[in-house]
Design goal:
236 residues, Purple Acid Phosphatase, chain A, domain 2, globular, alpha/beta, binds manganese (II) ion, four-stranded mixed β-sheet, five-stranded mixed β-sheet, 11 strands
């Protein structure tokens, strides 16, 4: 946000982790800095649209309200510079786990850690009785297979939503997997996340969309600077 300016800024949900804050409050100066950056952009004329996600669902009671230059929405249709229109939403509305077993989703964060502990004890007892090790990795592989089919059904649901809105594409987040590909004539864009992978989706001046990987971007910039300084040395 420090390095780029834009006419629009869509924050596609889960910006504030209300689930985590409810458990234990954690708010540092860097959190304030991010909010201040966003407010500053709004003040300077960027149209900021904050879209509510499942982790910041407390925002949903204020949907359709405006806070100065910031509008709060559940979903919004944005027209690109080239005339195509895109549905923008967080996407948790199509998460079958969240819709049918919210408690399971809340449990999800702690579940993996818990499973590791259980597995350790389980195998200790198995060993006592002379059984061999029960493989956690084969269990996980099975889970990954399920995860793959889960992701594709999530993508399909968002493509269906885009079709229902009669738009050319959809922009979402939620599953932390950056992606841009055409599914059944609809451009499915997932902007990924900014906690593990640091990815974002940008619209160029001609309306072209691009996924950017900021970690890679920074590496290239550093490499370029290093090359330049090498060049300086040679020239000297
Ligand atoms: Mn989410």
């Amino acid at each position: 946000m420090r390095d780029n300016d834009s006419k629009y800024l869509f924050l596609v949900g889960d910006i504030i982790d209300g689930w985590q804050l409810k458990k234990s409050w954690y708010w540092t100066q860097s959190h304030n800095d991010v909010i201040q950056k966003i407010l500053r952009k709004a003040r300077k004329g960027t149209k900021v649209c904050l879209i509510a996600g499942n982790h910041d669902e407390f925002l949903r009671q204020f949907v359709n309200l405006r806070f100065g230059a910031i509008s709060l929405q559940n979903k919004v249709v944005h027209k690109l510079a080239d005339g195509r229109s895109f549905l923008i939403m967080h996407g948790d509305q199509f998460d079958s786990v969240l819709q049918h077993a919210k408690w399971l989703a809340h449990l999800g964060d702690a579940a993996y850690e818990f499973m590791l502990t259980v597995n350790r004890w389980f195998n200790w007892i198995r060993k006592l009785f002379g059984f061999d090790y029960w493989s956690l990795s084969s269990y996980l592989k099975q889970r990954v297979k399920n995860a793959v089919s889960y992701i594709s059904s999530y993508e399909e649901a968002l493509v269906m939503a885009a079709k229902a809105h009669k738009v050319d594409g959809v922009v979402c987040g939620h599953i932390h997997k950056a992606e841009m590909r055409t599914i059944e004539g609809i451009l499915y864009c997932n902007d990924g996340d900014w906690v593990e992978s640091c990815t974002a989706l940008v619209e160029h001046f001609d309306g072209r969309l691009e996924l950017i990987n900021w970690a890679e971007e920074l590496n290239q910039q550093t490499a370029a600077t290093e090359n330049n300084s090498e060049y300086e040395l040679v020239r000297l």
